[in-house]
Amino acid sequence: MNDAHNQTGRQGRFAQIALVVLLGGAVTAVLAFAFVPGLRDTATGRAIRFWETVPPPPPAVPPGQLGEEMKTADESGTNTALVLAPDIAEQLGLETSEAVVRTPEGGIVTTGRIATDERRRSVVTSKVEGWIEKTFVDFEGQNVKAGQPLFSFYSPELVATQEEYLLARRAERDFAKSDFDVVRDSGPSLAAAARRRLELWDVSPEQIAEIEKSGKALRTLTVYAKTSGVVTERKAYPNMRITPDEPLYSLADLSTVWVEADVFESDLPNVKIGTAGEIAAPGAAIGTAPRTARVTFIAPTVDPETRTARVRLELSNPRAVLKPGMFVDVKLATAARPELVVPRDAVLDTGTRKLVMIGRSDGSFEILEIHTGAEGSDYYSVTSGLAAGDRVARRIQFLLDSETDLRARVEQQFPVSPAAGAGGSQPARGSAPAMPEGHVHP
Asked: Residue 51: how many CA atoms within 13 Å on its side-chain side?
């Protein structure tokens, strides 16, 4: 038994020694890949040295070579062309794309919001001071019909005027018995003046008839809604003192609503008063088929942050299923016209100018200014400066960022300043833009 125990102990020590040897070998290998010159530059060595910044890959073209190419071109007299040999362009991975003419899909798709028709809003006020006795419309959002009672109120001034009217009516009957024409004619005029005063204070003919019939002034009078709509604001409460300058209810008629859509400034020339639009709401708000409406208003200003203008369409809403604040999809029908387009990444936007690098038949590339029209998420339409079939370099911004000499020359020839690009003249195709006043060409 002792022999077996000793043998088990020797096997355990051998296993411990083997583990130590393996760990030592692993550590030695890691240190070798991390620091031995022949191994440290391998991918494994760079991965082990995680604390070091990975150096950028060497440039495909030696730094400054593009600047030297431009200098050589200047000395040869082609001072606007950047000559790139085919092998240099290939090393740069310079991709080109062709300017093509295409007809975009007709229509401008945007998002709209339902809003109340401001011409169908009304405010309920009192024309005399008083105190509210009772309210019949008690919460915002309540539907109100024209002629429906809103509240009743007590006004000492209104009660006094009723008394004056009743007194004038009695005087009219008494004066009618007089033998003098002046006295007989004064009775109706006094009663008419008192009645007119009640009418100006919105006392209805029915209420005046009730006063005449009873022969007594009404302590409280009820105010009725003159228009139908939804209560959008309520400030009338029982026992509250009211004055003529205080709005008590705000009503909005939702039988017709506005659809306010945001249209980018580049699309505004295609939108006119009367332009047809299709409106679709989420769910079953307006049914399965889109509703048709027409543009009735285009805002005269553009939002400086979103670069959009508000375009308004009117839509009937007889069942009041369209709620103010609801979002809808809007598609405005516009005439689709063929346009020349280039990829968006082929255009360098300096803020005042649009530049492209156009390829020539001899392998050279030339930076030119172009004028653009509408723009999309992946393209620019070109109004002047290019022709169909011209090839332009893509990702020009990345090329300029990697070549500081080239970027300096571009900034020198196409300065970014408020004066740059001023004026309404269009550049001729294949020509460099005119320099700002006072600029000296290098």
From this structure: 1
